[in-house]
C-alpha cells in the first residue's frame, strides 16, 4: 500500500508567496502525487474573495465559501498557511473517503471517449489486448462488434446519469463503470492499463483540487494529460484528455 503524508503549506517571506513543502496524495486510479508535483494554483491567497465576495452565487458557494471554516479575514500569513494546510488535508481525506466513486467516474469518462470516437485500442494499444477475448469475426467487423449499439447505449446512459453528480455521500452514486469495462470489453486488460497510470501534477486552488495524469507506454494513447477539477462536492469539472 502506498504511504500518504499530510499536506504542509508555508508562507515564504523571501518570495512573498504560499507554497506546498510536504505531502503525498494517493488519488486511486488517477495516480499518486508528492511534493515535487503538488502545487498551489494561486501562490497569493485573496481573502477578499472569501470574506468580501462581489456576490454569493452558486460558484462562490462551491469555490470559495468552504474555506471560511479554516480561514479568518484577520489572519497573519503564517496562520493562513496553517489554515490552508488543514483545509486541503480535510479535502483529501474526504476525496479518499469517496475514492471508489471517483475511480468509477474516471473510468466512465475514459469509456465514454472510447465509444464516442470508436477508438481502435486493439490496433493502437496491443499491449492491453487479451487476444483470447477478441470477437470471433472478420477483421472488418471488429469495430461494430466491440462498439455495438447495446454497449455504446449503456456507456452513454451511465455517463449521462453521473455527469456532474456529487460524490459526497449525499446521493447514491454507485457507478458501475468497472463492471461495464469487464463485461462489455473483456478483450481490454483493464488491470494492466490502470497499473500504467501515473500522476503528473496536483493543483490546489480555492476549494477545487485539480489532477492531471497520463499513461506510460501505450497507455499514453488512452490517457494523455487526463485532467479534471474535483470540486467541493467531489464532482468533476472541466474534464479534458489528450
Tell me the radius of gyration.
20 Å
- Sheet with the most strands: spatial strand order: 4-5-6-7-8
Number of helical segments with 4 or more residues: 9
Distance separating the two termini = 29 Å
Task: Please report which band the strand proportion falls in: under 5%, 5-15%, 15-25%, 25-35%, 35-45% or over 45%.
Answer: 15-25%
Structural class: alpha+beta
- Ranges where pLDDT stays below 50 over 5 or more residues in a row are none
Provide mean pLDDT, rounded. Answer: 93
Shape: elongated
Q: Please estimate the helix content.
A: 25-40%
**How many strands appear in the DSSP assignment?**
8
Topology pattern, helix = H, strand = E: EEEEHHHHHHHHHEEEE
The main β sheet shows up as:
5 strands, mixed
Compact description:
This protein is of the alpha+beta class. It is built from nine helices and eight strands.
Structure description:
With 242 residues, the chain is of the alpha+beta class. The protein has nine helices and eight strands. The strands form two sheets. A five-stranded mixed beta sheet has the order 4-5-6-7-8. The protein has a three-stranded antiparallel beta sheet with strand order 1-2-3, with helices on one face. The protein is elongated, with a radius of gyration of 20 Å. The protein starts with a strand and ends with a strand. The model has no long low-confidence stretch (mean pLDDT 93).
Amino acid at each position: 500500500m502506498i504511504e500518504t503524508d499530510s499536506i504542509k503549506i508555508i508562507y515564504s517571506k523571501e518570495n512573498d508567496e504560499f507554497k506546498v513543502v510536504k505531502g503525498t496524495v494517493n488519488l486511486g486510479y488517477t495516480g499518486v502525487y508528492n511534493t515535487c508535483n503538488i502545487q498551489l494554483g494561486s501562490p497569493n491567497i485573496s481573502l477578499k474573495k472569501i470574506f468580501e465576495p462581489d456576490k454569493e452565487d452558486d460558484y462562490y458557494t462551491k469555490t470559495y465559501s468552504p474555506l471560511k471554516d479554516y480561514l479568518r479575514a484577520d489572519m497573519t500569513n503564517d496562520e493562513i498557511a496553517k489554515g490552508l494546510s488543514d483545509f486541503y488535508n480535510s479535502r483529501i481525506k474526504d476525496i479518499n473517503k469517496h475514492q471508489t466513486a471517483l475511480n468509477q467516474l474516471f473510468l466512465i469518462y475514459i469509456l465514454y471517449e472510447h465509444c464516442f470516437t470508436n477508438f481502435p485500442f486493439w490496433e493502437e494499444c496491443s499491449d492491453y489486448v487479451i487476444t483470447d477475448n477478441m470477437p470471433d469475426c472478420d477483421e472488418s467487423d471488429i469495430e461494430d462488434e466491440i462498439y455495438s449499439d447495446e454497449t455504446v447505449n449503456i456507456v452513454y446512459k451511465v455517463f449521462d446519469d453521473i455527469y456532474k453528480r456529487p460524490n459526497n455521500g449525499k446521493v447514491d452514486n454507485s457507478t458501475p463503470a468497472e463492471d461495464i469495462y469487464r463485461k462489455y470489453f473483456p478483450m481490454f486488460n483493464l488491470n494492466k492499463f490502470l497499473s500504467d497510470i501515473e500522476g503528473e501534477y496536483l493543483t490546489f486552488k480555492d476549494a477545487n483540487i485539480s489532477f492531471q495524469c497520463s499513461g506510460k507506454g501505450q497507455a499514453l494513447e488512452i490517457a494523455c494529460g487526463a485532467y479534471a477539477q474535483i470540486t467541493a462536492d467531489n464532482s468533476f469539472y472541466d474534464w479534458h484528455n489528450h
